[in-house]
Design brief:
FAS1_domain, glycoprotein, alpha+beta, 4-stranded mixed β-sheet, single chain, 3-stranded antiparallel β-sheet, membrane, 38% helix, 9 helices, FAS1 domain, 7 strands, FAS1 domain-containing protein, elongated
Length: 265
């Protein structure tokens, strides 16, 4: 009984010690280290600003005719997608409205939709080229266009005068509309006309008919000096010559008759 009572007393003392605040404070687990402070994540890079070709062509130029055909054939979407490609870029040759006006009015009306699309694609290279790069680019002639490897151009750079030769036209670059990688837009003074589409004579507008001759330039026109017409002068000259001709003949007859009489005598 005494043993059991002693064990019970020891157990109770142990419980009392373990449950006391002092013991709990001594055996409390150490505090966790403060969390590491991470640097703020960097802000995302802004998306590259792409050139809107429709806006560019609508305010420059005038390039309204070319822009209308680009939109009609959906080639504008192809060019815009390439313009957004910062790796390769695009180089466009854009004719002015006056260049289209120099063609026959039926030039594009007689083309199929595929031909018209190829014609628009023919006015661009699938890579960005600055003006300074055309000198080296000319050594690679013929240069393939967006229309395909069979639709090529020959480029020449003669002391800064750059020409883009197709089969039926040889336009020159008039000015640089926009040239910042990856987009280059150059103004040309003629429409590029490939042989694959225009197999016969170039579709140039006929030359204007010569102006009708002015009535004052005819034979009856008055002379600036006298105000009389040439025909009137001719008539007057013939009238004045007639009397002189008559006098000369009469004199001759008189001399002949007198000579004959002298011989008879």
């Amino acid at each position: 009984m005494k043993l059991r009572s002693g064990i019970f007393t020891v157990a109770m003392l142990a419980i009392a010690v373990l449950s006391s605040p002092a013991f709990a404070q001594k055996t409390k687990s150490p505090p966790a280290p403060p969390a590491a402070v991470l640097p703020p994540s960097p802000a995302p890079a802004p998306a590259p600003r792409h050139v809107d070709l429709a806006d560019l062509l609508s305010v420059a130029g005038p390039f309204h005719t070319f822009l209308d055909y680009l939109q009609k054939t959906n080639v504008l979407e192809t060019f815009q997608s390439k313009a957004n490609d910062t790796k390769e870029g695009i180089t466009m040759f854009v004719p002015k409205d006056s260049a289209f006006a120099a063609l026959r009015t039926t030039t594009f009306a007689n083309l199929t939709s595929d031909q018209l699309k190829s014609l628009m694609l023919y006015h661009a290279l699938p890579k960005y080229y600055s003006l300074a790069e055309f000198n080296k680019l000319s050594s690679l002639n013929p240069v393939a266009t967006f229309a395909g490897s069979q639709y090529t151009l020959n480029l020449t750079d003669n002391m800064g005068s750059i020409r883009i030769k197709s089969m039926w036209s040889n336009p020159k670059i008039s000015s640089s509309v926009y040239s910042t990688r990856p987009v280059a837009v150059y103004e040309v003074d003629k429409v590029l006309l490939p042989m694959q589409i225009f197999k016969s004579d170039p579709p140039l507008a006929p030359a204007p008919a010569p102006a009708p001759a002015d009535a004052k330039t005819s034979d009856d026109a008055p002379s600036p000096a006298s105000g009389k017409s040439a025909s009137a002068k001719a008539k007057a000259g013939s009238k004045s010559a007639s009397p002189r001709a008559g006098v000369s003949v009469a004199s001759y007859l008189a001399v002949a008759v007198s000579g004959g009489l002298m011989m008879l005598l």
